[in-house]
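Standup notes, structure subgroup. Blocker cleared on the MU-OXO-diiron input:
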Amino acid sequence: MKIGNKVEEAVNKQVNAELYSAYLYLGMSARCTELNLKGMAHWLYVQAQEEMTHAMKFYRFILERNGHAVMPGIEGVSTDWKTPLQMFETAYAHEQKVTALINNIMDIALAERDHATASMLNWFVDEQVEEEANSSEIAEKLKLIGESKEGLFMLDKELSVRVFVDSTLPAGGAQA
Ligand code: FEO
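Run returned:
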């Protein structure tokens, strides 16, 4: 069934919001590289890659449902962050906003009785729990570390091992 106008508009906005998320994390990653925090830079770069897959999942969905994709501009982001804590607190606040956006699309989809969109969104509802937890956990660790250079070094090392996986694709399947 063709996607309805209200859901189409909301999903299009979400493509933009996810691309903005990728951009936001890329700006943070660049700043961490400048600050010589290579592990954090890597973690944030992987996060930017994940956000791109989120955008593509919404984008593909619009086209699969015979909708019309629109491509408005993406807002600019900062690359002048002062501290890692400032970045990860911003990331946590940002993820909470994204959760609210996803919940809003779900409300629209349910009001329109668009069960296909609601089903697709369930993946994002679960994903947002993890997204919020990840950024919040790192922000909390940074608060515990405080001014300790050793603590920062250890956390940076811990974050360097993150591996990018496109979890929006079916297991083992490549996107056609
Ligand atoms: Fe795509 Fe971080 O939410």
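Discussed briefly. The first helix runs from residue 5 to 34.
Next: hand off to the docking folks.
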